[in-house]
Q: What sequence folds into this?
C-alpha cells in the first residue's frame, strides 16, 4: 500500500516535513518512490506569480533541446532552481543530470489569450516536452504551471529527500502533497508516480482503481488535452477531478457523486435527487471501483480527501487553525502536528469529502447525503 | 420386412435415425402412456411375432418342438415424417423406466430425407453446435496485492445498467439546467428476458414469465425487464401497471400493434422501452414466422389476423427502403407515440454490417441503444439452413461495436444489448459477465429461461426443437390447451425468480474477486483472458495458457 501525506497551511512549510511524516508510516510502503506537489510557493518563486514553472528531470542534451524548443515558442527563461544532490544516490535511485525547476515568461501573444486557451497551451507544451523526452529518453516533465512545483524520484522518500536537499527555503510551500510509493501493478516509471497533475488540479491515491481500463478508454477519447499517456490506474482520479471542475463546471462537492454515486435508495431521499440522478447516469463511465483513498488539491488551493464507496483504505485529517494535514495514518499527523486537538481528528467515511480551504480555518465535511451547494 | 416389400430411397432403418428407441419387453406393462405422450407419433403399439421352443421334460422321448406366437410392445416408426426427436417424454411418463431414446453414435441418414415434397426442414430451437467462445473465457484479473478481496455475500454491489441514450456529461448538465429534453433512460437489471412472442410461447409460459418478472420487481426490488417479441401484448397487461416492466417489440409484420395503439390512451404506465426488430440471430435476413398450427383464436385476436393461417413477417419493413431511413423514421415515430418518454432501440442480427448500423445510430439523437443478436440465438420457427449456417458470432461483433464507440468517445452512451448464446451450455453468469466485459450494457436471454424456467427439452444436440409445430411436449411453445396445461404458470414464475436470484449470486462471485462492486464492469476487457491466441487478438483481450 502506498502512503499519503499532505498539508495545507497559512505559513510556508518545508517539503521535508511531509516526507518525515511519510517516514513515520514507513511500514506501509516499500520506499520505491516519492512524489511531491508544492503550491502557494514562498521565497523566490513568489516573485513570479502567474508565470508558469516547469518541473522535470533532464539530461544535459535534453535540457538543451528543451531550451531550444521553449525559445522557439517565445518563452523566456526566468528564475531557475536546480536541485543539488549530496553524496551518492540512495539505493535504487539512479544518478540524474539535472533536476530542474524553471520559471518561464510567456510571449506577449500568449498573454492576450483567453484563460482557457492559455491553460490548454501550457498543457500542450508540457505534453510536447513529455513526448520529446520519451522519444530520446532525455527528459521527464511533471508539470508546467504557475505556482506549482512537482518533484518525483524513485527511492526511499526520506533518503531521496535528503539526497536532493529538499529542505531548502526556495521549496517552502503552503500546500504540499507527498506520496510514498509502494510499487504494485506497474513498473517503476516516473510518470507512474503520484501526485498527478493537470492544469492546477493535483491528486494522489492510495489504492487500486479496478475500473481503470474502461475509465481510461473513456477519458482519453473525450477530446480533452492532457487525458493521455496513462501510466498509473490512479492518474484517472486526477483527470476525473479535472473533468468535474473544468469540463462540467461543478465543485469539489460533486466529485464524490461522480466517482462513487449514491445508491438509489439514498438518492430517493436526497433533496437534489433529480440532479444527482442525471449526474449519476451521465457520469456512470467515470465511476471508480476498488479500494481507494484520494487526496488532492484544487486550482484554488483547497485540499480534500475522499474514500471509495466502501471505505477500504485508511485516511485521517486533523490539525489546528492555520495548519491541517491529511494522512494515511494518524502517526503521520502526529509527526507533523503533534500539538493539535486529537479529539477533532476525522476519518472520512464512505460518503464523506473532507475539505480544507486555503485559509485553513477548519475541516469541512461534506456528506453525500447532504444537499449540494446551488448549481448554476 | 418381407423380402418383396418396396424399398424407396427414403426407407430408413432404425439405425439410420438420429434417435433410437430402446424398449424393454421385460418391464413394460403396456400401459400406453408413451405412445400417448409422444409429440410426433414416433412410437406405436407393435405386434411382434415370436417363435417359442417347447422343450419336453428331460429324459423323455419327445423331441423339442416350436410354435409361433405374438406379443405386444412398442415399435419405433422409421418413416422420416415420424422420426423420433429425442424429447424423452416417453421416458418421463413411463412408470417402469422401460423406454428410452438414445442418440445414435454414428451419423444419421435422416438428414438427407427431410425435404419431403420439396419442403426443407423447418424447426425451432437453436444452432445445434455446442462450442462457445464465451465458455472458454476466464476472468483473470484477480486483485491479490492491494485489494482486500470484496465479499460477494456481504458487500453492497451495484449491478444495474442503463437502457437508453446517455448524454455526454457536459451536455446532460446543460440540458438539465435549461430544463430541456433529455433522452429517456431506464435503470434496469443487466440480464433481460429477450423477445419471445405471445404466440411463439404458450399463454401459460407467457403468464409465468410475466409473473416472475413482476415478482422480481415488486418483491425483490430487482428491475428485470422482458421483451414481448413480435406478437403484441395481451390487452390487460397493456392497461396494467406491470407494463413498465415490459419492452414492446415492433417488427415488420406489425402484429399486435393495432391493439397496442388502441390501448395507448388507457395506459397507466409507459412501457420500459420499444424494440424495433430488424433481424434476429437465429435466422438473419429472415422475418418472423408463426406457423399455422399455432395461430388459434386468441393469438389471432391479439395479432389482428384470421386464425389458422401461417404468419410470416417479411424480412424487411416494407414501407421503408433503407435501414437508415427505416431506423430513423421508426425510431422517431415510436418515440413520438409516447411523447419521447420511452427509449426506442433497434435490434439487428449480428452481421458484418453491424458497425454501419451502429454508426448511423450514434448520429441519431433519438436512438436509445442497439441490440445485437448473435448466431447462437434461438427461435420458434425457422428453416434449418438459416439456423445452422446464417449469422455472425456475438463476441467479435459486440467487441467491434464497443471498440468503435470507444473510438468515438461514446462508449455506453449508446448501450449495446447483446444476445445469442449466453448460457447455451448452462454457464449463464459467466457468459453474461464475459459479454459485459467485452462491452455489453445488457445481455438478453431466451432459450436459457425456457430451459431453466420451464424445463424446455431442447439442446444443442438437436433434441426436441419442434417449437414451430405447436406440439411442444412441455407446453412452452404450444397453443393447444391440452399441451400447455402441463405448464403451471406459478411454477414457471418461481423458477424465473430462482434463476435471477441465483444469477446475481454467481455474478457477485465473479465480480468480487475482480474488485468490482460500485458499477457494472462494462468494457473491463483487462479482466478477460482466453487460451486461444487468435481469439485473444481478435477480441483485444489477454492470451493466457
Ligand atoms: S423420445 Fe420423444 S419423440 Fe421419441 S419416442 Fe419418446 S416421446 Fe416420442
Ligand atoms: S420442449 Fe418445447 S420449447 Fe423446448 S425445444 Fe421442445 S418444443 Fe421447443
A:
Amino acid at each position: 500500500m502506498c502512503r499519503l501525506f499532505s498539508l495545507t497551511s497559512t505559513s510556508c512549510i518545508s517539503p521535508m516535513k511531509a516526507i518525515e511524516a511519510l517516514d513515520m508510516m514507513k511500514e506501509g510502503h516499500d520506499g520505491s518512490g516519492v512524489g511531491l506537489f508544492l503550491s502557494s510557493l514562498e521565497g523566490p518563486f513568489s516573485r513570479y506569480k502567474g508565470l508558469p514553472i516547469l518541473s522535470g528531470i533532464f539530461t544535459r542534451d535534453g535540457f538543451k533541446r528543451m531550451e531550444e524548443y521553449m525559445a522557439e515558442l517565445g518563452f523566456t527563461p526566468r528564475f531557475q532552481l536546480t536541485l543539488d544532490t549530496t553524496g551518492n544516490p540512495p539505493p535504487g535511485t539512479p544518478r540524474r543530470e539535472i533536476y530542474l525547476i524553471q520559471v518561464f515568461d510567456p510571449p506577449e501573444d500568449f498573454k492576450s489569450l483567453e484563460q482557457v486557451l492559455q491553460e490548454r497551451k501550457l498543457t500542450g507544451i508540457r505534453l510536447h516536452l513529455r513526448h520529446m523526452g520519451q522519444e530520446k529518453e532525455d527528459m521527464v516533465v511533471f508539470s508546467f504551471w504557475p505556482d506549482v512545483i512537482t518533484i518525483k524520484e524513485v527511492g526511499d522518500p526520506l533518503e531521496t529527500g535528503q539526497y536532493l536537499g529538499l529542505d531548502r527555503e526556495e521549496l517552502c510551500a503552503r500546500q504540499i502533497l507527498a506520496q510514498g510509493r509502494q510499487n504494485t501493478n506497474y513498473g517503476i516509471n516516473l510518470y507512474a508516480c503520484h501526485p498527478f497533475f493537470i492544469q492546477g488540479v493535483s491528486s494522489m491515491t492510495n489504492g487500486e482503481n479496478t475500473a481503470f481500463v474502461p475509465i481510461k478508454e473513456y477519458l482519453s477519447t473525450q477530446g480533452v488535452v492532457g487525458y493521455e499517456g496513462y501510466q498509473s490506474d490512479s492518474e484517472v482520479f486526477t483527470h476525473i477531478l479535472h473533468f468535474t471542475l473544468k469540463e462540467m463546471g461543478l465543485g469539489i462537492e460533486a466529485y464524490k457523486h461522480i466517482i462513487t454515486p449514491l445508491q438509489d435508495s439514498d438518492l430517493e431521499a436526497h433533496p437534489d435527487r433529480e440532479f444527482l440522478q442525471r449526474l449519476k447516469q451521465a457520469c456512470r463511465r467515470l465511476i471508480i471501483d476498488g479500494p481507494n483513498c484520494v487526496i488532492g488539491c484544487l486550482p484554488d488551493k483547497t485540499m480534500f480527501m475522499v474514500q471509495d464507496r466502501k471505505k477500504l483504505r485508511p485516511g485521517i485529517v486533523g490539525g489546528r487553525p492555520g495548519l491541517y494535514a491529511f494522512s494515511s495514518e494518524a502517526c503521520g499527523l502526529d509527526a507533523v502536528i503533534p500539538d493539535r486537538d486529537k479529539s477533532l481528528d476525522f476519518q472520512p467515511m464512505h460518503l464523506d469529502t473532507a475539505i480544507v480551504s486555503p485559509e485553513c480555518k477548519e475541516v469541512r465535511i461534506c456528506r453525500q447525503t447532504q444537499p449540494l451547494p446551488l448549481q448554476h | 420386412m418381407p423380402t418383396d416389400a418396396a424399398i424407396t430411397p427414403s426407407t430408413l432403418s432404425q439405425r439410420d435415425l438420429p434417435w433410437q428407441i430402446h424398449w424393454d419387453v421385460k418391464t413394460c406393462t403396456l400401459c400406453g402412456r408413451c405412445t400417448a405422450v409422444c409429440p410426433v407419433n414416433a412410437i406405436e403399439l407393435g405386434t411382434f411375432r415370436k417363435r417359442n421352443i417347447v422343450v419336453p421334460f428331460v429324459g423323455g422321448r419327445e423331441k423339442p418342438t416350436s410354435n409361433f406366437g405374438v406379443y405386444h410392445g412398442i415399435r419405433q416408426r422409421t418413416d422420416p415424417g415420424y422420426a423420433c426427436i429425442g424429447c424423452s417424454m416417453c421416458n418421463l411418463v413411463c412408470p417402469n423406466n422401460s423406454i428410452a431414446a438414445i442418440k445414435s453414435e454414428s451419423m444419421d441418414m435422416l438428414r438427407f430425407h427431410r425435404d419431403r415434397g420439396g419442403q426443407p426442414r423447418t424447426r425451432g430451437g437453436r444452432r445445434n453446435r455446442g462450442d462457445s467462445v464465451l465458455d472458454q473465457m476466464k476472468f483473470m484479473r484477480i486483485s491479490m496485492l492491494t485489494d482486500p478481496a470484496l465479499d460477494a455475500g456481504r458487500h453492497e454491489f451495484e449491478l444495474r445498467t442503463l437502457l437508453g441514450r446517455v448524454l455526454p456529461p457536459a451536455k446532460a448538465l446543460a440540458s438539465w439546467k435549461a430544463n430541456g429534453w433529455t433522452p429517456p433512460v431506464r435503470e434496469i437489471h443487466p440480464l433481460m428476458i429477450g423477445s419471445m412472442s405471445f404466440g411463439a410461447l404458450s399463454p401459460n409460459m407467457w403468464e409465468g414469465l410475466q409473473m416472475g418478472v413482476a415478482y422480481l420487481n415488486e418483491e425483490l426490488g430487482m428491475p428485470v425487464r422482458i421483451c414481448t417479441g413480435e406478437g403484441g401484448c395481451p390487452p390487460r397487461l397493456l392497461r396494467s401497471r406491470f407494463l413498465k416492466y415490459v419492452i414492446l417489440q415492433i417488427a415488420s409484420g406489425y402484429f399486435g400493434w393495432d391493439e397496442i395503439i388502441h390501448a395507448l390512451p388507457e395506459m397507466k404506465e409507459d412501457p420500459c422501452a420499444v424494440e424495433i426488430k430488424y433481424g434476429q440471430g437465429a435466422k438473419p435476413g429472415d422475418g418472423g414466422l408463426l406457423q399455422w398450427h399455432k395461430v388459434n383464436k386468441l393469438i389471432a385476436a391479439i395479432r389482428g389476423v384470421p386464425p389458422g393461417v401461417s404468419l410470416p413477417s417479411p424480412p424487411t419493413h416494407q414501407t421503408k427502403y433503407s435501414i437508415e431511413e427505416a431506423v430513423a423514421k421508426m425510431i422517431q415515430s415510436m418515440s413520438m407515440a409516447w411523447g419521447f418518454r420511452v427509449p426506442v432501440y433497434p435490434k439487428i442480427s449480428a452481421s458484418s454490417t453491424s458497425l454501419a448500423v451502429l454508426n448511423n445510430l450514434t448520429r441519431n439523437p433519438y436512438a436509445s441503444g442497439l441490440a445485437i443478436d448473435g448466431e447462437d440465438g434461438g427461435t420458434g420457427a425457422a428453416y434449418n439452413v438459416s439456423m445452422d449456417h446464417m449469422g455472425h458470432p456475438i463476441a467479435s461483433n459486440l467487441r467491434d461495436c464497443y471498440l468503435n464507440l470507444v473510438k468515438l468517445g461514446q462508449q455506453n452512451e449508446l448501450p449495446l444489448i447483446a444476445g445469442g448464446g449466453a448460457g447455451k451450455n448452462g454457464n449463464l453468469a459467466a457468459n453474461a459477465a464475459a459479454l459485459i466485459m467485452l462491452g455489453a450494457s445488457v445481455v438478453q436471454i431466451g432459450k436459457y429461461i425456457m430451459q431453466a424456467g420451464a424445463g424446455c427439452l431442447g439442446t444443442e444436440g438437436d433434441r426436441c426443437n419442434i417449437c414451430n409445430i405447436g406440439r411442444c411436449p412441455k407446453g412452452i411453445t404450444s397453443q393447444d390447451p391440452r399441451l400447455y396445461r402441463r405448464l403451471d404458470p406459478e411454477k414457471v414464475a418461481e423458477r424465473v425468480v430462482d434463476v435471477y436470484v441465483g444469477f446475481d449470486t454467481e455474478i457477485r462471485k465473479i465480480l468480487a474477486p475482480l474488485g468490482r462492486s460500485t458499477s457494472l464492469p462494462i468494457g473491463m476487457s483487462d479482466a478477460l483472458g482466453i487460451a486461444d491466441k487468435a481469439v485473444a487478438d481478435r477480441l483485444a483481450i489477454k492470451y493466457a495458457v
DSSP finds 17 helices and 21 strands in chain B.
